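Go through this chain for my students:
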Amino acid sequence: MILGFTPFTWLHTILSLVMLVAGFVVVKDLLRSHIDNTWMAVFLISGVLTNVTGFGFPFSRFTESHYTAIVSLIFLAGAFLGLYVFKLAGAWRWIFAISAVLAFYTDALVTIAQIFKKIPALGAPTASTEPQFIAAQLLLLAIVVWLCVKAFRQFRPA
């Protein structure tokens, strides 16, 4: 144990943070109609690994995080297919852009939930119905909807 976390928990957490940082860069680039192949690969790979390792923790039933991971994997698959298989042809351009933004959203969503869970000073360590938790999630959702609209309209790679 390192600082109360197992090495597996650290691996999962680090992968999630890598996906989050890479996601910021990827989404920023999408709004500029740019794709940095390295950042995109880091984002997609760390995203898949984050979601897959999430299933490695002991559980007796599926929780919200498991369903979120499945949805995130679907978004990551859409981004991967749109970019690497269909080469952004036709509708795959916007499917790719929106899938990438939504995959980033799922990681940010879980990150906010974990922050509220792990930092009791925020006042919502056990209840996802606390007003401050709901406000944070709604703010994130509003930002992501705005980013999806912008990505849909603006992402036009050369």
Q: What stands out?
A: The CA atoms of residues 29 and 76 lie 17 Å apart. DSSP finds five helices and no strands in the chain.
